[in-house]
Structure formats: C-alpha cells, structure tokens
Amino acid sequence: MLVELVVVTGIIVLLLSLALPNYRYSNQRLALDRSAHKLAQDFRRTQEMAMSGQTFTDKNGGNFPAGGYGIRLQGAAAPESYILFGDVDGNHEYEPATDFETETVLMEKGVVINDIQTSEGGTINLFVTFLPPNPIIFFEPTSLATWIRIDLIHENDPTQIKSVLVNKVGLVSIE
Questions:
Q1: How far, CA to CA in Å, does 112 sit from each of 92, 125, 156?
Q2: pLDDT of 35-65, one tens digit each?
Q3: How many helices (H) and strands (E) does the chain have?
Q4: Fewer CB within a 10 Å sphere, N or C end of the chain?
C-alpha cells in the first residue's frame, strides 16, 4: 500500500514538472495575443469615434475635435502604454496642453511595444488620427507613410512577436 502511494505521488510530480513550464509559456503567449487584439480594437474604436462624430464635453459644451480622434504610441519612451486622444487643435498630434486624453491604456504585465515601423522607416513616437467622414487617416510625423506596424513582445520571451498593422485606408490587422 505504501509503495503504491509513493508510485502515484511520483507520477503526479513527474506530470506536474512537465506541465508547469508549458503553463508559464502559454500564459505569456496569451498575454501577448490579448494585448495585440486590444491595440487593434483600440484603433478600430478610435476610428469609430471619429466616424460617428462623437463629441466631448468642455467649457463650451459638446464639441467634435477639429483634428478627429487618435492614438499616440510613444515607443521606447513608454513601451507599456499608449494614449487615446481627441485632437482639438487639428495638428494630428497629441499635445496635453491643448488636446484631451480619452484614455491611457496599459498593456498586460510583461508586454511592451518593441518597435514601431512605417512604410517610410522606423520611428520613436507615432500619432495616428482619424478624421471623418471616410475617415481620413494621418500618420505623424511621417505623413507620407502608407502603413504602420507596431511590434509587441513579452519581456520574458522576446522571440515571440505579435504585430498590429494599420494601413492608410484604415484596415487594421494582426500578424
């Protein structure tokens, strides 16, 4: 009876030792996938706010931001977050003094923005704004870019990359 108990305990320990590393890896992979889908969804949500003509409330009542709605990606300066904003002054960039912040979105724990690329080359900061009705899309500071790619990684496994792509027509996809 004691021998059987020791054998069963040994088998359970062996199975747990095989399953535990895969559990951690799959949690990191799921966090990376969720963050990529959240970023893509936030691009779509910002696009929808611009296309629907959503107003914000200020001292003058309800207003639509002159430059539409956008997302500020800060790259290496703040790789774990990005900002959704309303472009009040119409310059297609987020300036805290004049524009209003809709939301600061934090990535899941361990997930960071690794790289931001455009069709014109790499960049550190990027502003993507959507202006109705089509919507018209602005990539700043590289206004000639036709697409952008944001690469996300998990700090514990930088070999796994998820990319969110946005093109000039507003199509958002995940690779």
A1: 24, 14, 11
A2: 999 999 999 999 998 888 877 766 556 678 8
A3: 1, 12
A4: N
CA nearest neighbour of 101 among 143, 69, 60 = 69
Gap between the terminal Cα atoms of the chain:
54
Which of these CATH numbers, 3.55.40.10, 3.40.50.720, 3.30.70.260, 3.10.129.10, describes 26-174?
3.55.40.10
Q: What is the pTM of this model?
A: 0.83
Could you identify the residue written with the tokens 């993507």? 128
Asked if 114 and 80 count as a contact pair (C-beta separation under 8 A), the reply is: no
